[in-house]
Amino acid sequence: MMGRSLVVLVVLLFASCSGGGKQPCVNCGPDNGVDQPDMGGGDDSGSADMPTTADVAVGDVGSGGEDASDPDTGNAGDMGVDGGGDVGMDADVGVTCLAEELLCGGVCATCPADVNVATYACAAAECVIATCDVGYETCSGGCCLPAGPAPSGPVSTQSFSALDTSIALDKDGYPQISYRNFFNTNIEHARWDGRAWVITVVETGVQPEKPALAIDALDRPHVAWLESDPFDLKYAVRTGAGWQVETVDAGGDVGNYASLAIDSMNRPHIAYQDATNATLKYARHDGTAWVIETVDAGGGNTGWFSTLALDSNGRPHIAYSDFSLFAVRYARWNGATWQIESVETRPSIPQYVTMDLDSMDRAHIAYLDNPVVDLRYVRWNGTAWVGQTVDALANFGSSSTIKVDGSDYPHIEYADATTDKARVARFDGAAWMIQDISPLENIGPSSSIAVDSAGGEHISLSIKGPGPVELRYLNL
Predict the structure, then answer these.
(1) Between vectors from CA 114 to CA 113 and to CA 119, what angle results, nearest 5°?
(2) CA 20 to 30 Å from 380, out of 23, 72, 103, 269?
(3) Strand partners for 308
(4) Cα distance between residue 100 and residue 111, in whole Å
(5) With 0-12 CB in 10 A as exposed, 13-18 as middle and 19+ as buried, what is 246?
(6) 361 φ, ψ to 5°?
(7) 310 forms bridges with which residues in the sheet?
(8) What is the per-residue pLDDT for 394?
């Protein structure tokens, strides 16, 4: 009856795992995906099956041939008696892991540290997060709060001087911001990934000015800017390989007031001033190379504050200031030639010209009128240009940007230099509503606005304080 005695021995060896043993037991239980063979049967055992530990595979008990008629005896398995009568134990028996470890494939694997983890599991020989606490979800960093809109507040806690911001929204409605870091002369890009701001350097030490940001249909950011030493027009796009930077136009002082738009083929278009010749220029990429042309040579002092938008046919529209005419000018490509006209002529020079197109490809233009220091708004109604004063400012501001929402209503972000406040003026179809959006802090130059599909406003701006200028984001 050697086989019967060995069955009793095996049962005694593992009795501690059935609940209440003195030695720690990892993953004890009747079934964790491991086959549970019979360990007894017949009249001598008085029991059909005996539960085993999860981490030990127990085979049938064998013997040298005695009691071979017993239905549950046979050749020794992972845990049993071999033909020579020796007891063989699996390698996992008696293994005790630390609190931060999990037994995976016979090895104590260290689990990722995260206070919001609910359970862990084994993946091959590694410990991985299986589930997170309620209200959290798995992410690349462990267990994170669910992805969502960016909250209003600082984009970075680092000390740097962020100027000339430009904001755009990706297909999820998340903001991205380009800006120049005055402290280290870098051009940089900040992207909200749903949980945090991710900041990358586009190019280092280039003394950039007025970077313009646009996002294509693949959610790739594109940036155009004037590099001030030498004074060249630069362009960059972020791909899987990182930022790809190139020079678009060089020779003289070119690239001032760069304005960027992306067409339906994800190709960039840039309007900018050639300051050497005081002309308005336009560059587009045809898929192979840059095609550059002069749009308006003017009276020798034009192309200031250029702003570009593409219509539903991918054709460019450009608004800008002509200092020699004291006029806001508008150039539109009709498929064959440029059509150029003056939108408004003022007693002095219009500044900070900005433009957007509505669903009918009609232009909406805003600018700051100096020295009258009014915020002006002009739109094409299909027959003529119609203008009005939106805000009679007490002093000249430092920037303005306009975006048109899904209802074709304009939203204008601008600065009042007297009160040191950034403001938003929005038209609701009947009247203009004006809101101070930074009542407690001074603002740096060149804030920017984007409007989402629901009409929500997203604003990037620089906050001047006792130290470096801080980059901030507002979700209104």
Answers:
(1) 95
(2) 269
(3) 318
(4) 6
(5) exposed
(6) 65, 25
(7) 316
(8) 58
User: Side-chain half-sphere of 467: how many Cα atoms within 13 Å?
Assistant: 6
Token readout for 30 is 């009747």
426: which 2 tokens? 């929005």
Q: For strands 107-110 and 101-104, give the pairing.
A: antiparallel
Other beta carbons within 10 Å of 17: 21
Number of Cβ atoms within 10 Å of the Cβ of 106: 11
| Contact (Cβ atoms closer than 8 angstroms) between residue 269 and residue 281 | no
User: Could you please report the per-residue DSSP string of 181-227?
Assistant: ETTTTEEEEEEE-SSSEEEEEEESS--EEEEEEEE-TT--EEEEEEE
* Rounded Cα gap, residues 398 and 320, in angstroms: 16
DSSP state of 66: T
* Chain-centroid distance, C-alpha 165: 16
Q: What is the pLDDT of residues 421-472, one digit of tens each?
A: 788 999 999 999 999 887 555 565 678 999 999 999 999 988 776 666 788 8
pLDDT over 70, % of the chain: 75
